[in-house]
Amino acid sequence: MLYGYAGKILRVNLTTGNIKAEPLSEEMARDYIGGRGFAANILYREIPAGTDPLSPANKVVVAAGPLSGLFLPGSGKITFASKSPATGGYGDSNMGGHMASELKYAGYDAIIIEGAAQKPSYLYIDDDHVEIRDASKYWGKGAMISERMILDDLGEDFRVATIGPAGENLVKYACVSHDFGRQSGRTGIAAVLGSKKVKAIAIRGTQTIPVPDPEKMFEVGGRMYEICFAKPGFKEWTPDGTAGVTDWVNQIGAFPTKNFWTGYFEEHKNINGQSLSSRIKVLDKGCFGCPIPCGKYAKVDMGGQSVNVEGPEYETIALLGGNLMLDSIEKVAYANYVCDELGLDTISAGNVIAFAMECLEKGVITREQVGQELRWGSIDDAVKMMHAIANRKGIGDVLAEGVRYAAEKFGGGSEKYAIHVKGLEWSGYEARYAPSMMLAYITCDLGGHHNRAWAITHDVATGRDSLVGKADKVIELQHVRPMFDNLGACRLQWVEIGFELDHYIELIETATGYHYSWEDLMKVSERVWNLTRSFSLREIGDFGRKYDYPPARFMEEPMPTGPAKGKYIPRKQIDTLLDEYYDKRGWNREGKPKRETLDSLKLGFVADELASLGRL
Amino acid sequence: MLRITLQTRGYLQQVFPDKKDTVVVEVERPEAVRALIARLNIHPDLVMVVLSGDGQRRDLDYVPGDGEVVTILPPISGG
Question: Residue A379's pLDDT is what?
Fold first, then answer.
């Protein structure tokens, strides 16, 4: 018996209607742990090379981890993964809420969704009873509205993930939504579900997760909660959630403002954590097993509506606030609500609309092309464009493809203003004066995303003008932080309140009966990192170093205002960072893993395939 | 001699002496938290929140009294 795991993977073929439960192998559990690791392994092995991300041959993997659903702090994380329609490479995005625990209680560690349905459908999973059901009545409805409708139809004891109109219309940065405001936001997994006509996944589970000694699990888990509660300043985390960092990011000149034109937003105090908690917050909202609820359920009156929204959290404040120059928390919260209902990733949406605003301002595109007003700071204009994108109306059809594509389409030098890496729009930290953070962004396996290695404090501590030692720290973080996505646990306990990493060794052993050292776990992380890199190498013909550069703005334009004024990282320094990073990873200077590196990570089968394709 | 206890967690703990979560700083006369952390070679931008002994939010210019336990917290790491 595989303790800590449900022991089965559910495979659903939408084309044939075949549904089967397959045993989880011990080798898979030990070598890949779970969550993101399972997803990377399954996608690499099962998706044929060169698959169109929006074709039936692509697959979506939904995977929990060995800690998901157990009595321990923050055990509510699940990973959605696929070949990304946004980047053409490996894509995943983790999500909180209650899907991970429910999936395990239903008896599955992961779901593999393959093929495509002929008509709108949803997956109905009630323990062993699994069906592909008709979703026609939900199709076209908002992500949260359809979650409400499905819960009304099935009962409140189901847990439901949905896509919105953006996913249905194959917007490349459409997100999966759950729990009325939790998202698997990045890399466009909802567009893949939309291409398969999957509107939702509904799960109810009534089973238990086997552990070696249930009483010990409760004892250890309970003790871990007490450790969290005793941390210095524990209560200070909760009131503002991640929004609490807004002023700090602005203070160091890293707050995305006006399409990353600068890193300082004058109106930051009107969209910060305090404005959220004092003006619009209704209550704190946590995920399964969470001792530090970061979700902030808010209510705001705008646009003739009174709406409830979970958030805004920091990333949304940065990209819909500063980047669009929306100057009140109410406006940001309303824009957040619109994106959530449409099923748009707020990070990419904020980038794309800001890009269009700058293109219009600089005359790259005309008012007639845009088809509406598109002014900095206008909530009305931004919301109108969100609807145009989600429904692919007018210029929204171009912007629905993301900034990389839109810049190619618009021309006129606009690629300089397309703030992305590998086709994924940049998240909430301007990195022109943060070389570690810059390296973290440009080497992130997904594209322009922060969560693999949030290294900006390392820059502050070790010198923001220095390049020395940055690669070591970034690689360390790229191994530690994504491990939480393998475990099916939330990293915030560790990274925010200082819950020590060593506690996870005891938790994993209590849950699985299997002892890992952190060195063992880091080896798994390194394996997964090289596998996702190899996935993108296999799928994108010319993938490699040239995909690892930031947008020209960050290499050529000195920061115009704020605490980082005058700072930028020239291409030569980017090259220095990349060379050191590749060397330390055991990759060649083209950013390709060497055979010996892959062999040492039990990825010989990957080396063989890449060699056969001439991509090693 | 004044004895001020500084306590922290998370990333800041990594730059505290011996990576412990608490340090006692002894000073001849009252000093602001900014000066106290400078004695420990901690960059002020690594501190996001300062809590005085009574649990109130302060800033780096707060001057703690003898025997006070001050909590300093690092920035939140995104969303």
Answer: 98
- List the structure tokens of A414: 């606009």
Whether residue A231 and residue B9 make contact (CB cut-off 8 A), yes or no, is yes
Inter-helix orientation angle A214-229/A502-512, to 10° = 160
Distance CA(A273)–CA(A243), nearest Å, equals: 4
Tell me phi and psi for residue B57, to 5 degrees.
-75, 130
pLDDT for position A423: 98
d(CA A378, CA A447): 29
Place of tokens 């991640």: A242
Handedness of CA A327, A454, A524, A597 (dihedral sign): positive
Please state the φ and ψ torsions of residue A323, each to the nearest 5 degrees: -70, -30
Rounded distance, CA A276 to CA A300, Å?
A: 11
Would you tell me which CATH number, out of the four given (1.10.760.10, 2.40.30.170, 1.10.569.10, 2.40.160.20), belongs to the domain A234-425?
A: 1.10.569.10
Q: Which CATH number fits domain A435-612: 1.20.210.10, 3.40.50.1220, 1.10.599.10, 3.40.190.100?
A: 1.10.599.10
Tell me: cis bond preceding A212? Omega within 30 of 0 counts.
no
- Averaged pLDDT score across all residues of chain B: 94
Instruction: Please report how the helices A35-46 and A470-487 are oriented relative to each other, as an axis angle in degrees rounded to 10.
Output: 90
Q: What is the ipTM of this complex?
A: 0.94
The first and second tokens of residue A261, run together, are 């034109």
Structure tokens at B69: 């336990």
What does the DSSP assignment read for A589-601?
Answer: TTS-B-HHHHHHT
Burial (0-12, 13-18, 19+ Cβ within 10 Å), A572 = exposed
Q: How far apart are CA A94 and CA A148, in angstroms?
A: 22
Q: Report the relative pairing of strands A281-285 and A198-204 from DSSP bridges.
A: unpaired
Report the distance separating Cα A39 and Cα A488, nearest Å: 12
Min distance A502 CA to chain B CA atoms (Å) = 13
Domain count, chain B: 1
Going by C-alpha positions, the residue among A83, A22, A77 that lies closest to residue A52 is A83
Which residue, among A175, A457, A459, would best test binding to B if mutated, counting the most B CBs under 10 Å from its CB? Answer: A457
Q: Does the pLDDT value for residue B79 go beyond 80?
A: no
pLDDT at A383 over 90: yes
Q: What is the pTM of this model?
A: 0.97
For residue A340, give the H/E element and its range: helix A329-342
Taking any CB pair shorter than 8 Å as contact, residues of chain A touching chain B are 231-233, 236-237, 241-245, 248-249, 251-252, 294, 313-316, 427-429, 450-451, 454, 456-457, 460-461, 495-498
Please say whether the beta carbons of A205 and A105 come within 8 A.
Answer: yes
Across A42-59, average pLDDT: 98
Instruction: Give the Cα separation of A379 and A399 in Å (integer).
Output: 18
Residue among A231, A242, A457 whose CB faces B74 most closely? A457
pLDDT in tens, A534-545: 999 999 999 999
User: What residues of A are in contact with residue B49 (Cβ under 8 Å)?
Assistant: 233, 236, 244
The answer, for B70 touching chain A at a CB cutoff of 8 Å, is no
The total of other beta-carbon atoms located within 10 Å of residue A388's CB is 21
Give CA–CA dist A20/A195, Å, rounded: 22
B45, closest residue in chain A (CA to CA): A460
Q: Compare all CA atoms of chain A with the CA of B49 and give the residue at the minimum distance.
A: A236
CATH architecture group of domain A8-204: 4-Layer Sandwich (3.60)
B contacts of A496 (beta carbons < 8 Å): 10, 76-77
The structure tokens listed for A558 are: 């000195």
Q: Are B45 and A429 an interchain contact pair (Cβ–Cβ within 8 Å)?
A: no
DSSP assignment letter at A515: -
